[in-house]
Amino acid sequence: MAVTLGPSSPDADIHPIATGPAKEIVEKHSIQKTWIVLEEKQIPYQYIEVNAPLDPSSLLSPNPRGAIPTLYCPQPDGSKPLYESNIINEYLEDVFSSHQPHLFPLDPYKKARAKIWVDFVTSRIIPSFNRFLQAQGEGEIAKAHNEFLGHLKEFIDAMDSSGPYFFGEDFTMPDVALAPWAMRLWLLDHLKGGLRIPEPGEGGEDEQIWERWREWVDAVGSRNSVANTLSEKEYYLPIYKKHPRLSDLSLL
């Protein structure tokens, strides 16, 4: 992860470059969901690093929210911006439909279901992850922990039982949507006493759910598009400790 920093920046002490496999692709950070799609579909792209909160770059000025990711799309009257990672990902899937793999199922019903669960990640899982990360005090932490695990279990229960991905053998947009957060859940071990998912054989009535979860995490984490867009763990923790109230952790 890289940020453009001046000497007086409050983030000047945060590690400034991508590390590990992510460094092999680009020596900077990205919004990982869209980066995963670009890598999965092998879409040629130019990566431009912008630190949105500190750098009011002209690259962001056409975006009314001044947010990242921003994708500049060639149009007859010039390049036009798109923003919001889920919208960008749908656009990339439509425009580069000849690029494999298809990240939405071709079956209309399954495609609609995929969109439902992408939205579930965005509207339920990620906000509850943020609340868990921000919770203070034993009671608030316990409530946030139960809420987050409840949403996670609902997502797992909707998965195809054959695995390893959400729709079985095919890696699709619901997997993309959750992957960045799933790969960062280890942070909770350092910040909130851990996620406390039961160990194998200790899940009780939820044993099959957590077995399916471990299968999914292993499969998603081993995909090149996910592994190669992660920095080394040691550089994430200082960011989360410094900014526990980040409203959009996809920035990491």
UniProtKB/TrEMBL annotation:
Which PROSITE patterns does the UniProt record give? GST_CTER, GST_NTER
GO cellular component terms, semicolon-separated: cytoplasm
Q: Where is the GST C-terminal domain?
A: 107-239
Ranges for domain GST N-terminal come to 18-100
The entry lists its GO molecular-function terms as: transferase activity
Q: Note the InterPro entries from the entry.
A: Glutathione-S-Trfase_C-like (IPR010987), Glutathione-S-Trfase_C_sf (IPR036282), Glutathione_S-Trfase (IPR040079), Glutathione_S-Trfase_N (IPR004045), GST_Omega/HSP26 (IPR050983), Thioredoxin-like_sf (IPR036249)
Q: Which UniProt keywords apply?
A: Transferase
Top-rank taxon: Eukaryota
State the protein's name.
Glutathione transferase
